[in-house]
Amino acid sequence: MNPLPGFSFDPDLPKPLVRREFLKQLAAAGLVTMGMGAPRLWGAAPKVIAPPAKADACIVLWLAGGMAAPETFDPKRYAPYEKGLDYKRVLSTFPAIPTAVDGLQICQGLERIAKVMDRAALIRSAVQPDLGSILHSRHQFHWHTGYVPPQTVACPHIGAWMSRVLGPRNPVMPAFINIGQRLEGVGESEELKAFTTAGFLGGEYGPMNLPYPDEAAAAVRPPKGMDTGRFVNRDREFRRLVDANPHRDQMSDYQQESMLRSMDNAYRLLSAKERAAFDLSLEPKEAQEAYGTTRFGRGCQLARRLVENGARYVEVTTEYVPFFNWDTHGKGHKMVEEMHATIDAPIAQLILDLEKRGLLDRTLVVIASEFSRDAMIEGRPGSKAGDQSFHKGTTMESPDHYGLHRHFTGGTSVVMFGGGVKKGLIYGATADERPLLAIKDPVSIEDMHATIFTAMGISPKTMFEIEGRPFYATVDGKGKPANIFG
Amino acid sequence: MKWGSRLVISAALGLAGLGLHAEVDFNHEVVPLLKKHCTECHAGDKKKGSFSMNTRATLLEGSENGVMLVPGQVAKSKILELVVSSDPDTRMPPKGPGLTPAEVEVLKNWIKEGAVWTEGFAFKQPAYEPPLKPRAVALPAAQPGREHPIDRLLDEYLQRQKIAAPAVADDGTYLRRVYLDLIGILPTPEETAAFLANPNKDKRSVVARELLAREIDYAEHWMVFWNDLLRNDYAGTGYIDGGRKQITAWLYRSLINNKPYDVFTRELIAPAPESEGFSKGIIWRGATSAGQKPEMQFAQSVGQTFLGINMKCASCHDSFTDRWKLKDSYGLAAIYSDHPMELVRCDIPTGKMAAAAWIFPELGQVDATLPRAERLKQLAALMTHPDNGRFQRTIVNRLWHRLMGRGLVHPVDAMQTAPWNQDVLDLLANQLVTTKYDLKEVLFFIVTSQAYQSQTQILQRDADDKGYVYHGPRAKRLTAEQFVDAIWRLTGTAPAKIDAGVMRARDGVAIAALLAQPIWSNDTAKGKQPAANEARVFRKTVSLATDVTRAGLVIACDNTYELWVNGHKVGKGDDWQSPQSYDLTTVLKKGNNDLIAVGRNGGTAPNPAGLWVQLYVQLSDHKEVVVATDKSWQWSATLPNAQGALPAKTEWKPVALVPDVGWGEGESRLADQYAMLSKKTMLLPRAALMKSDLLQRSLGRPNREQIVSMRPTELSTLEAIDLSNGAGLTDLLNRGAAHLMQRTWASPQALVHWLYQAALCREPSPAELKISLEILGPKLTEGGVADLLWSVFMLPEFQLVR
Fold it and tell me: What pLDDT is recorded for position B527?
């Protein structure tokens, strides 16, 4: 780790605000909120059967908007564009290319990822429920929490589960960091906020949101316009003011101390050497070039730095903005071409970097999206969802019509690297003719979460009591891990 | 202490999350099995062979024949022998086909894993069944000076518990508490000083009455509570697809007019279009699972909000934790449903149809054959039936929780559990009925008790694990809205307008008219428009006969303005469509006051320009003064210096009124804002009327996707980071510091005294004063002021209502 320029790190921080006699109690009490009927682990916990963890950290590369599997990791019959082309003739608009794994092909445009597929297990049979009239954010909510909204309690994001159950790997690093998604000023932002949360587990386990990777350093720096000296001084004076408070002994210790503990924790992160992990400007130039200049590329690079420094769960997204990025309702081929270019180098580089640093074996990297796409079928056969493509004809009359424009939930690809997955594995399969349904080893959302949780050493049956009810990591603790581990 | 050892807390916090991962699921696998085969004879009051499985404890006690089950030890668990026995005399259960091999396996694995049992679960809850009807409360004799009925009951309780009554909170503490609890904002230093100086013995109840009479402040504070409880918000999921509807305007009017709670409830259950958003629930686009259909949401919301019943479990299957069954939630849902409903158990249809039914038939029943609207009216009447003590207790318990920091029943939505003092709960419920469901009267009743006015309990730990014992009120965390309102008010940084679509006035109160007319200099030739970027100075001298109680001003200018009052720079603005309001209470004085505004036109060619100002002043003799831009104002082309001063020989000429050139929308906003500030209270925007933002979320304002009856009481680390370096608070503090710098301070000490009075309702101690002055530095700077503001706002004393 490079030293942090311009900041003289003082290893002997001011004495904690929290009084020593409360340290133990606060720790014992955990982060359970006082007398709130707040979540607590169910029962007296006589026996814990947590699966052995295969990975310590998890990076989800979230290709939001509906990544078409036949355009990425599950190439099917290819037909080049020509005017008047019948949709029926096209399953993929990109030809297949070979990968580092014999017999495994993915789509043209992902050449660099193709070279690292020998480190991956490729699941081609992920399936989602149709949920009727398809709303992206609803499927994204489902994918990220395991529960379909609306729900009677606020559902935690999988990152929050990891934060709650596993805790931070490094005590000063936030356990759950969410990169690349703006939560204000984009379509469906209220819906995005609804699952970008720790829900009932409580704010302590919620995400640190970093929509712009290049500005991540600012999130852990003194406030804008305040130099380090003033920041340190402000904190020191604040501590003196706390100590001088004549009512300190007449106020509830627990409430005061828990508040001050959080202020302490915050100050610790804002002064710790780990905060350099958030600063992408410290990356060598060559490395910056390898990841490229897109927000996603920068996000992948940031994720690597954060995991190196002890983050538990990091998500990086190409960002969900309705009708942009992977939300390819029109000009599908061209948009996917751009998305290939956006993800190919950064993902491959991330895998290689983690490997080079010896971190890949204990880091589970997951590439996923809320559902796949098809040029013909909305949802899955029998779905009542309306046709969501812009062009309603049956032939392609312009290059804009070339591409997969409809949502499809019957068969999706998910790629997992590291974290003990069998390298070069292809798991499950989809049909070679429409509908491209998963025809072998289907992996439901519950199964997908069971797979990820199990790799992280969390049983899907882990449960918390909320409002007198059990709430499980997966719905009713269901879900079987896909057999993808070595 | 060194770096390493200080990390202990976080590490331990991380470990606290270790979960329970039993392979057999007690609730879903074991309970149904035992219910099917065993509990008919071995649970509740049935103990055949002296053996009961009602609770884990009784199960482990065993039977007359000894231990039946040893957790973790299959071989020693006789129960397993009995269920597989081929001897018809010993086999359990004695009748029927007995357990299937798969069921035996479940039982065996369950025992092997330690016979995990849901904490608190019993097949039949033997303990507490809450009374339904109201109950008269006999009051014990009063101790001298403690005649309030609440105190008479609590004194008896404390005596029984051998606990001394908590000491009385001092006046400053009381005042801050009662302001925040009743109207959500801090008393001004002037209000605090007046209260402290008031020798009247009744002053505490007098101020409580006065606060409850501040209709707008009261309504806007309690919007927070009700928006949480009715999951109403100005943005959120569901709205994009029309799957949700606001009840904002109805709620605001209900609160400002203090609608009786029974009427309020009836209007939510059997709603008109303006209040139907509550019962409609939240629907996302697409198919919805059985347990979250709008009808089921209705059953859940009505149960939780009005009765403290959790119908969420029973929406999917019979509840494991209380007496409500699937058919009960479906019965409530069917009252609301406009189509026949089939009972669905855990997403599997049962073939049985739901019958519309109210859950407490003792009070009467809904006629399922009537049309929906009539059924809902019947439900509303049953809910608010005078004999429905559960309804009354639920709301008074919520109010007690808000004021006292902890419910009589706690958590407040678990109304099936025993209160720690049934008498106090019933007393409050009876008070509600006696006062015709007037919530303000219940609040008044509570805050006038000695109990409310006591010092808060000093908690040593995250207590209550050994059962709650009352020691006095508990400190509460400021709500996000209280925190933000306090900062806005103290630093003069409130936003220019609110998000909520409400008229901030009581029904029947005339909205003060906008008198301001757009003015500009009279030197523009007829038919011409003011030149681009032309700057003009406008002035008005306002003569006030007495001291000022409250004063505020709205201003807008096409295109930009800067405003000085009595030499203080009040502010500037560059968006004529977003007029701004300023509190001038401390700036205006008895005698002559100078208003100076510099207006600047924009554009690149001549174009219309205009300035609007309207000032509202309430004088100490209760007279009102309104000053608006009109022909009496004067203008000059000479610009003021940085202090807003002009040369003595400046030539002033009368202004011209500008004809309307389509400023309609900006003017109507100006009128709205003027209407706000000219009310008796200064109507600055309140956080409760704004959409949530990152700062409010950091301070615990919830997403209102679910009903929220209790907010998190603790500040999380991520929230603390936002408060330490987040752009939202940083910006407020910087702007606030700049704003405070514009005021005249006799000395830095004066600023510190003012801040402690305004934020904490007390004077700083000598030590605090010294440190605060060090933070400010020898000369006031924006940075120093911002840092002092931050340090005081971060104090637990500030962030808590103690």
Answer: 73
Per the CB < 8 A criterion, the answer to whether B382 and B265 are in contact is no
If pLDDT is split at 50, 70 and 90, which confidence band does B265 have? very high
Q: Residues near B503 by Cβ (< 8 Å), separated by ≥ 6?
A: B249, B252, B511, B675
Residue whose pair of structure tokens reads 């993808």 in the numeric block: A484
> What digits encode the pLDDT tens for the residues B676-734?
665 544 467 899 999 999 899 889 999 999 999 999 888 888 899 999 999 999 999 99
Query: What domain count does chain B have?
Result: 3
Window B:52-81, CB contacts with A under 8 Å = 71-72
**Domain identity same for B728 and B777:** yes
Domain A50-223+284-477 listed as CATH 3.40.50.12780: no
pLDDT tens-digit readout, A458-472: 999 888 888 877 889
Chain B residues close to A463, C-beta within 8 Å:
19-20
Q: What is the pLDDT of residue B679?
A: 54
* Angle between helix B203-213 and helix B439-447 axes, rounded to 10 deg: 160
Domain that residue B700 falls in: 694-801
B610 and B715 belong to one structural domain? no
Predicted pLDDT at A6: 30
The residue with tokens 């073939």 is B351
**Spatial CA neighbour of A353 closest among A52, A59, A102:** A59
Report whether pLDDT(A269) > 90. no
pLDDT of residue B172: 96
Residue A47 has pLDDT above 80, yes or no: no
Using the beta-carbon criterion (under 8 Å), do A27 and B286 form an inter-chain contact? no
Does the residue B724 lie in any domain? yes
Nearest by CB to A469, which of B17, B241, B313?
A: B313
For residue A19, what are the β-bridge partners?
A: none
CA dist., res. B223 & res. B184, Å (int): 10
* B672 and B759 part of one domain: no
Angstrom distance (rounded) from CA A69 to CA A373: 7
The reply to whether B155 falls in a domain is no
> Is the CA virtual torsion A389, A392, A396, A401 positive or negative?
negative
Paired tokens of B790: 């931050």
DSSP run (H or E) holding B151: helix B149-161
Calculate the CA B288 to chain-centre distance: 29
**Average pLDDT estimate for B30-52:** 80
Answer for the pair B336, B344: CB distance below 8 angstroms, yes or no: no
B686 has a chain A CB within 8 A of its CB = no
**Chain B: closest CA distance from residue A97 (Å):** 37
Q: Which of A449, A412, A127, A191 is nearest to A320 (CA)?
A: A191
Are B652 and B763 part of one and the same domain? no
Q: Per-residue pLDDT for A25 more than 50? A: no
Which of B64, B92, B112 is at the close of a domain?
B112
- At B321 the pLDDT is 65
Place of tokens 């007019």: B257
E-strand spans in A394-462? Answer: 395-396, 406-408, 412-417, 425-427, 429-430, 438-440
Radius of gyration of chain B (CA): 32
> B552 pairs with which residues across the strands?
B583, B616
The token pair that represents B306 in the structure block: 């009005």
pLDDT tens-digit series, residues B358-398: 999 999 999 999 999 999 999 999 999 999 999 999 999 99
Report ipTM for this prediction: 0.89
Per-residue pLDDT reduced to its tens digit, B628-663: 999 999 999 999 887 778 888 888 999 998 887 767
Nearest to A224 among B18, B721, B727 (CB): B727
CB contact under 8 A, B286 and A138: yes
Domains in chain A: boundaries: 50-223+284-477
Spell out a b/e string for A271-298, using b for 16 or more CB atoms within 10 Å of the CB, else e. bbebbbbbbbebbeeeeeebbbebbbbb
Cis peptide bond upstream of B748, omega within 30: no
